[in-house]
Amino acid sequence: MRPRWRLGAAAAIALVVAGCGSSGESQPTRTAARAHLPSTAPYLEMTSPTSGILVWPSGSAWLLLSTRDGFAHVTNRTPEGVETDGGLIAAAAPGRTVVAVRAHQRLVRSPVLTTDHTWRWSADELPGAVADARAALSVTPATAVLTAGGGTLQRHGARGWTPVVAALSLGHHLKIDAMTWASAQIGWLTGSARRGAPTAYGTRDGGRTWTAVPQAAGAVTAALAPCGSGSSWLMPVVRSGASITVLRTTDDGARWTAGAPVPPSSAGPVMGCAGDTVWLDGRPNGRDRILSSSDGGGTWVDRGVAPDNLSDLTPTAGGAGFAASGGSDPQLWRVTREGAHFAEIALPGWTSSLGQHSPDMN
Amino acid sequence: MPSGDIADLGSPLARLLLWSGGWALLGALVVGALLWTYFSRRATEPSSDSEFAEPRGRRFLRLGFGLLWIADGLLQAQPRMPAGFVPADIDPQLQAGPDWLASLVAPLLRAWTRHPVVADVAVVWLEIGIGLLLLLGRRGVLARIACVVAIVASVVIWVLGECFGGLLAAGASWLTGAPGAALVYALAAALLLVPVSWWRSGHAQVLVSRCAAGWLAVGAVLQAVPAEGFWTADGLAGPFSDGAAMRQPGWLSAPMRSLARVAGQSPGALNLVVVLLVSGVAVWLWFDGRTAALSGGIMLCLATWWLAQDFGVLGGTATDPNTGLPLALLIAAALPAWSAQPAAARASGSTVRTGARAIGIPLAAAFTVVVPAVLAIGLARPADSAAVAADSGGGLRLVPARAAPAFALTDQRGRPVSTSRLRGKVVLLTFLDPVCTSDCPLIANQLAIADRRLGSLAEHVEIVAIDSNPLFYKVADVAAFTASHGLSHLSNWHFVCGPPAATQDVLGSYGISVGVPTVGMIEHSEGLFFIRPDGTEAAYLDDHAGEQLTETYAQQVQRQLQSMLP
Fold first, then answer.
1. A361 and B524 in contact by Cβ < 8 A?
2. What is the mean pLDDT of residues B322-330?
3. How far apart are CA A207 and CA A184, in angstroms?
4. Which of A122, A200, B159, B489 is the most interior residue, by most CB within 10 Å?
């Protein structure tokens, strides 16, 4: 009896330990820390090979810079009248840019500012704080804006902000990090979830109903914002064991196929897409390397050593693109040869001093 | 408010004390001369009063508490008392107490903040008058009047001045003097009201020792209740370290520092000792009213008075010596030694005594009734501007009564708000940024606290914040701020906004500058305007408090508003 009792006790203890280890949010949290791209690191969003916006640190503040010539020149577009020390989440579409200001100190709702080509901001506020993910904000081809704040997607319309879907209603402890819209009707929301639960959902009716992406579940612990256009989309997913796989669809998400897995870099799942071109900061042999794929993540080519603290990779066209790295010495890069060559782009001196403002009066 | 910020209103206080005391003395001399003549004629025959042999225990209690009342009156005459009474004695209780307590005490606070010197002088003479009445009232109608007045005054002081002896807030215990010194005064006066025969028979002494035992038992229970916080190092060390922090000779504070250290190291053990000691003495006093038990009770009270209450009179804003000394006096009145022989009947017809009574009685009546009544009339006058300003703690300044610049904007509910619509109400006007990340939410929070403390008086006040951000100027913006910071339930809160051009004009007319930096939150000067019901500016609270915005800010706002309310 004694050996059996001991065996039973050991099994019970093992079960408890295993339960503790896999219960609650420990696993999603551990993965989620590296499963999305935070807003508090330099990043850019290009609307054409030479035009786009850059979110850039300056002192304690964050600036929004725009360019029309591939960052040969930049213009400060930072919205006035709001504290940007907490970070900025920006999304751009041709002729339309939207910025959400992250909650900071006692700011409990995120100001959201919208502008067109005139760069005159129209101010609004979310009914909550925007999530700390650079893809938490999305501009649709129409005028609606959706963002993830407090676990709820909100759509902006004529009557202000209205909820689209709450993470809780999807169950499985999904932590929404991002959403992406192919059109006003078709879109995806992605995030991290407990192992086994879906990490990505799609809608074909503008957000009224959501269907889990089956390939983004099971061993997948997080899904990143898809990129693409038309009916072709790529959705990177993080699998347990810390490998990244790109899911690919060519039929608006009806079917997804998985590419070759790659270990992500120490900086996290930094990657960018343009059509079927994918650049990824990977760690194939224990060192951070730039990997590129021309078939939507099906196969990868090692392009060389990646810069330290890489925070964004944005391919544009013709094997070129841009990249940004953070840390104590943020840098903007012009990337060529499919990621094999990085050349630093010098930004004007005012970009580093503009945010070093005096202490607040209010 | 830190004690160092309390204004010294010694000069106006001394002037009013001399003025009112002088007139009272003059009147008493006149009346006293008439009474002296009357008493002198009656003194040819033995009076019943002169033949009255008062039991020594009763006499000790009467004289002791008479002197305590006078001492309390003198404490009330400390220079820092007019400005310090509310922030040092009342506000801490209100901060920790329930909302209804604030509403209950609001009339007192309003009167005191409007006329701190007048109110303080009224209390000074009232307490001295009660002391004189007790000293003079050996028996008869005068003694009964003295005791009844003392009881009523004690209960009023216990409720309004001590906020129920601190029982409604955590941290009330035997060590801190709970359930309140004023109740000991009331208890003593009530014991003086019992028939003199009880004192002669010893029943009164038993009653005294039982009352003292009950008091100690309540103190022990409070000391033991975990919610009061005396089983923790911070809670138990508090009374000792607070006392040690007072300016006094080192040999007085050294034991307190030692006890504070012990309390910090072993709070449970020390509190257990205190609880057992107090409850043990309570039981001893209840079942054994002899000298040993009474002496034990007296020693415990005096030790507590020294070590935990630091004599209760230091600091400049103490209103009484706390419970240790009065309770010791009360217990001492029951000592068997007093009943060895009654106090000898005084020689009848003493000219000195007759003269003292002839002047003392009208003087006591003047101090107790006439002077406070006359001063109470003064409380109805407009606020004592200089005193209020001095009491405000520095940031507040009175301004010329110019008409407040007009505005007509829209509040967070979409309703129009204008200076003309606000006429008839006291208006608290400030300037906030709805997407401010630093001070604006704190300021709004402090205004909400001040508003809550006003209780029912808040219906006479409108709090108006003008949106100072020229970029976030829509109703949705101010509504979002209101909801975000829990202000939606305030019916008198108006966060008003309008087209940037209109609001910037209004801000300019109030001297508020707004800057929009290239990067970062808008910069705007801050401040609070207090506007009278007739639309004229009364005061301005300059705000450079920044992150230091605390309860003090709300207190300043609350006091200024109270001084302006009808």
1. yes
2. 93
3. 9
4. A200
Pull the structure tokens for residue A107.
Answer: 């700011």
Which residues, 6+ apart, have CB-to-CB distance to B156 below 8 Å?
Answer: none
Complex ipTM more than 0.85, yes or no: no
Alpha-carbon distances of B410 from B417, B459, B502, B527, rounded to whole Å: 6, 20, 11, 21
Cβ pair B417, B411 in contact under 8 A: yes
Contact list in A for residue B521 (CB cut-off 8 A) is 81-83, 360, 362
What the block records as the tokens of A341 is 């060559």
Query: What single string gives the DSSP state of each residue in B359-402?
Result: HHHHHHHIIIIIHHHHHHHHHTSSP-HHHHHHHTTSSEEE---P
pLDDT band per the 50, 70, 90 thresholds, residue A331: very high
What's the first-to-final CA gap in chain A, in angstroms? Answer: 73
CA atoms within 13 A on the CB side of B45: 5
CA dihedral sign of residues B182, B185, B191, B192: negative
When pLDDT is averaged across residues B538-544 and rounded to a whole number, the result is 77
CA distances from B504 to A104, B30, B409, B501, B525 (A): 26, 67, 12, 5, 13
For CA atoms B480, B486, B487, B490, the dihedral sign is: positive
pTM of the predicted model as reported, rounded to 2 decimal places = 0.60
Q: Which helix (H) or strand (E) holds B525?
A: none
Q: DSSP states of B292-361 as a string?
A: HHHHHHHHHHHHHHHHTTTTTT-SS---S-TTHHHHHHHHHTT-GGGGGSPPPPPPTT-HHHHHHHHHHH
Identify the H or E element spanning B410: strand B408-410
CA separation for the pair A178, A146 (Å, rounded): 10
CA distance A192 to A217: 10
Chain B contacts to A (CB-CB under 8 A): 432-442, 468-472, 474, 476-477, 480, 484-485, 515-526
How many residues in chain A? 362
The 10s digit of each residue's pLDDT in B403-441 is 999 999 999 999 999 999 999 999 999 999 999 888 888
Per DSSP (E only), the strands in A182-223 are: 187-192, 200-203, 211-212, 220-223
Q: Which helix (H) or strand (E) covers residue B489, if one does? A: none
